[in-house]
């Protein structure tokens, strides 16, 4: 994508229309926004919007019913090529079985049979606003991001890029030909907030709106976007037994995407000592995310990059370029 993105913004690119979209919620069973959006769409029997067929899925029904993130293992870490091709035995965890079911239904991953666009809806306890998370910065998804960002003025809209080979991409959205997660917070686990629900619903509606315009022949002009690219993860300070010895410092708490400079406080030990950041200036996100305690992550750090993309329109029948 890096080389492709350098094409002139004046060049227009034609891409086949997108006819199938999957909207998924409940991949983590205690993140309620996506779960309730999917249930509402199913209740209203929303299966087609204009030229786009829509599949709505509660991805982890057992965890959703139990109100837990997962039952045996994190479903959103089960979609690598290795795990999707692993043999199923009596001891295979429920989530891995479910991942292979979803891959068969929405993929298979990397195939021409996969859905054109897969959107997975998540919540975070971190103060991140509305974020789209991509594995690959595709022109279609960049245009969708820019469209949402331009239309939603009430909340910060950002993009996070994970530079991981698609074969190693572990999240559900990697199963589609294109895909992204929508991550919105702050929202506590097991809680539904009206403002967060409405943010995500608006982002989903705007995505479907963009697809309708694109498929109907509208040309979207090229431009540039900023994306946060993961550099590294930072764990909490720990003692010799592996126990956490500090909390996120109050100056960092709730300041996701605020530039972190060397010397800025990041942790406050339980003994009252302030621990400061040492390193290059980077942007923190997923700060103090509840679900990442078990993953030994206090926050991620990213650099900000600017990407250019060309004008785009749907390829017409018989068109070769």
TrEMBL record:
It comes from the Eukaryota. InterPro entries: AspA/AstE_fam, Aspartoacylase, AstE_AspA_cat, Aste_AspA_hybrid_dom. The active site is at residue 183. GO terms for molecular function: aminoacylase activity; hydrolase activity, acting on ester bonds; metal ion binding. It is a peripheral membrane protein. Binds 1 zinc ion per subunit. It catalyses: an N-acetyl-L-cysteine-S-conjugate + H2O = an S-substituted L-cysteine + acetate; an N-acyl-aromatic L-alpha-amino acid + H2O = an aromatic L-alpha-amino acid + a carboxylate. Keywords: Cell membrane, Cytoplasm, Hydrolase, Membrane, Metal-binding, Zinc. CDD domains: M14_ASPA. Pfam families: AstE_AspA_cat, AstE_AspA_hybrid. The keyword Repeat does not apply. It is found in: Apical cell membrane; Cytoplasm. Its EC number is 3.5.1.114. Residues 224-303 form the AstE/AspA barrel-sandwich hybrid domain. Zn(2+) binds at residues 28, 31, 122. PANTHER family: ASPARTOACYLASE, N-ACYL-AROMATIC-L-AMINO ACID AMIDOHYDROLASE (CARBOXYLATE-FORMING). Belongs to the AspA/AstE family. Aspartoacylase subfamily. NCBIfam families: PRK02259.1. This is N-acyl-aromatic-L-amino acid amidohydrolase.
């Amino acid at each position: 994508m890096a080389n492709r993105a350098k094409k002139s913004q004046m060049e227009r690119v034609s891409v086949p229309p997108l006819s199938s979209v999957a909207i998924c919620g409940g991949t983590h069973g205690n993140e309620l926004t996506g779960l309730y959006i999917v249930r509402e769409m199913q209740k209203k029997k929303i299966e087609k919007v204009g030229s786009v067929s829509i599949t709505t899925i509660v991805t982890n029904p057992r965890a959703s019913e139990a109100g837990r993130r997962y039952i045996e293992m994190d479903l959103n870490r089960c979609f690598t090529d290795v795990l999707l091709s692993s043999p199923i035995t009596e001891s295979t965890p429920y989530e891995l079985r479910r991942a292979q079911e979803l891959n068969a239904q929405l993929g298979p991953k990397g195939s021409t049979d996969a859905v054109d666009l897969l959107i997975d809806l998540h919540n975070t306890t971190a103060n991140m606003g509305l974020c789209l998370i991509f594995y690959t910065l595709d022109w279609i998804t960049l245009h969708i991001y820019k469209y949402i960002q331009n239309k939603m003025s009430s909340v910060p809209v950002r993009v996070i890029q994970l530079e991981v080979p698609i074969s190693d991409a572990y999240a559900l959205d990697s199963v589609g030909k294109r895909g992204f997660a929508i991550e919105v917070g702050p929202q506590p686990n097991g809680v539904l907030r009206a403002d967060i629900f409405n943010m995500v619903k608006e982002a989903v509606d705007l995505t479907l709106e963009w697809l309708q315009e694109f498929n109907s022949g509208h040309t979207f002009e090229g431009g540039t976007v900023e994306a946060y690219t993961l550099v590294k993860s930072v764990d909490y300070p720990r003692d010799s037994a592996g126990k956490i010895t500090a909390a996120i410092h109050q100056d960092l708490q709730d300041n996701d995407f605020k530039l972190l400079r060397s010397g800025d406080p990041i942790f406050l030990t339980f003994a009252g000592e302030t621990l400061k950041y040492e390193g290059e200036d980077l942007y923190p996100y997923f700060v103090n995310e509840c679900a990442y305690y078990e993953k030994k992550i206090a926050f991620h750090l990213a650099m900000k990059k600017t990407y250019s993309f060309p004008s785009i329109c749907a390829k017409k029948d018989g068109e070769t370029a």
